[in-house]
Amino acid sequence: MTAPTVAACQMPVADLDVETNLERIRRRVFDLSPAVDVAAFPEHALTGFVPDERLHEHAIAREDGTLDHVRALAADVDRAIVVGFVERADGTYYNATAYVGPESTAVYRKRHLWGAERALLSPGTRRVVVETPVGRAGLLTCYDLNFVEESAAFVRRNVDALFVAGAWPRAHAENWRLLLRARALDGARWVVGAGRTGRRDVERAPTAEYAGGSCIVSPDGSVATELDRESDDCVRTLDSATLAEHRSTVFPDSDPSNP
Which of these, 24, 19, 101, lies nearest to 60 by C-alpha position? Predict the structure, then answer.
């Protein structure tokens, strides 16, 4: 069986402009090699983010058709898509990351909110694990990386990979890279981090510079491939032999889900 290939699709995001972002994602997905099984995009990749009430006006409900467009795209190219957005559900708003396959969708709501998010969004309560071409995978969003209990919970669920959607500040780029590496090593699993690049420059909103820094990290914590701040794709084939080798090193005497 051919080993799965993943792409972390690093891109700038048009804040409060869902149509533009959908078109950017569509072009990027179609431009990828046919070998790519999962294409991962940054935090807020569909909606963008501004720290005021305008964010609610552009939030996406699961039933409003936007995710249907992403599902149709996934079916057209026969690959899964991981994408971030601000979600609206029964008058409540969340920072969400969706794993959208050709036939199914799972949505994770960010459990640990950062800064201005706390005044505008509600935290999620559930951890999400999905079956993917890479194996069992957990979903995380940006600041979630800082919390070791999230990593430990996924160790107990014996995931083979983490998909992380990020919009990390440029000023703290090295922390993003460090935490992606740590979360790979402490669970002996692949980590795919898709970061936002560029800047937010929206009227009546503070400007923000984003780190980019998308990377794919091996189960031993070493960076397999990475980007700086360019708009590009970080692509890697994730072979099961590498995962098994590093797991036997990190967890030589036990099942990683029951250390």
Answer: 19
The per-residue pLDDT for 1 is 65
Strands 5-9 and 38-40, sheet pairing: parallel
Residue 255 lies in a domain: no
* Closest to 8 measured CA to CA, from 83, 59, 65: 83
DSSP 48: -
215-217: strand order across its sheet: 129-132, 135-141, 161-166, 190-195, 215-217, 223-226
CATH code (residue 223): 3.60.110.10
**What range defines the domain where residue 128 resides?**
5-250
User: First-to-last CA distance in the chain?
Assistant: 30
For 64, residues 6+ apart whose C-beta sits below 8 A from its C-beta are none
CB half-sphere exposure, 139, CA atoms < 13 A: 30
Handedness of CA 187, 192, 198, 204 (dihedral sign): negative
Q: Give me the percent of the chain exceeding a pLDDT of 70.
A: 97
pLDDT in tens, 8-27: 999 999 999 999 999 999 99
Q: Considering its fold, how many domains does the chain have in total?
A: 1
The reply to whether 98 falls in a domain is yes
Res 103: pLDDT: 82
Rounded to two decimals, what is the model's pTM? 0.96
Computed from CA positions of residues 162, 27, 18, 234, in that sequence, does the dihedral angle turn out positive or negative?
Answer: positive
| Range with the poorest average pLDDT among 114-128, 167-181, 235-249 | 235-249
